[in-house]
Amino acid sequence: MSCQKCMCQFIPIKLKSKSFWLYTMQYAALYLCSLVVIICLSFFLLNSWDFIPSVYGFILSVPDLTPNIGLFWYFFAEMFEHFSLFFVCVFQINVFFYTIPLAIKLKEHPVFFMFVQIAIISIFKSYPTVGDVALYMAFLPVWSHLYRFLRNIFILSCVLIVCSLLFPVLWHLWIYAGSANSNFYYAITLTFNIGQILLISDYFYAFLRREYYLTHGLHLTRQDGTEAMLVLK
């Protein structure tokens, strides 16, 4: 209880409060200053600014369409060149689009917000790896108290496991055996990422459902005394 009180006092969440905006500006300035220091140190080490397009520009512009477990490579390989800039912006904005709504909804739960945000980044980044998926999945035991509220955990677990097993099989059939093509590999990639999205959505639903029960009680009743069913919209 004392830890929760300390967190509430340390993280102001009132948007109309001056202390909230002061807190936000302080940490935004700290982040920007740290970023500038890192970039300047990189310049002094390399004596060139070429690392900026190689590091940041490479991730944002997606010039390399080597097949991976992400959503970008197949889509842009099949696209006309004059449409690529528009759709790169559309795809990249997915990583940032959900940040503000989630931050507002989960302003009192920063750890769960961090978990959801890491998962979204790992799904929608231009060059995801297995390590990105493993990073947010390593946090799943932290939310073991949500298991009873999950709806499709068994099906989604089977989907992710089967897709993980099929990745090397379809890669071998496509690249080495020549008996398959890129459509097979991208189909399993798309299924894998849809499974991740549904998994995170299920955890988000379970978290909101548990918060609702903590506020209103576990056994809900209608005005006539009969048992009610909770439907979140």
- State the helix count: 10
Overall, the morphology is flat
Q: What class would the helix/strand composition place it in?
A: mainly alpha
Q: Provide the low-confidence segments as ranges.
A: 1-10
Radius of gyration: 22 Å
Distance between the termini: 31 Å
Instruction: Summarize the biggest pleated sheet.
Output: none
The succession of helices and strands, N to C, reads HHHHHHHHHH
Helix content: 55-70%
> Which oligomerization state do the chains in this entry correspond to?
single chain
| Whole-number mean pLDDT | 85
Total DSSP E strands: 0
Strand content: under 5%
Describe the structure.
With 233 residues, the chain is mainly α. The protein contains 10 helices and no strands. It has helices at 2-10, 18-46, 51-61, 72-77, 84-97, 99-105, 110-124, 130-137, 153-177, 182-216. α5 (84-97) runs antiparallel to α7 (110-124), α7 (110-124) runs antiparallel to α8 (130-137) and α7 (110-124) packs antiparallel against α10. The two termini are 31 Å apart. Residues 1-10 have low confidence and may be disordered.
Observed structural traits:
233 residues, 68% helix, flat, mainly alpha, disordered N terminus
Helix/strand layout:
Blueprint (H helix, E strand, L loop, with lengths): L1 H9 L7 H29 L4 H11 L10 H6 L6 H14 L1 H7 L4 H15 L5 H8 L15 H25 L4 H35 L17
Helix pairs in contact: 5-7, 7-8, 7-10, 9-10
Quick synopsis:
The chain is mainly alpha-helical.
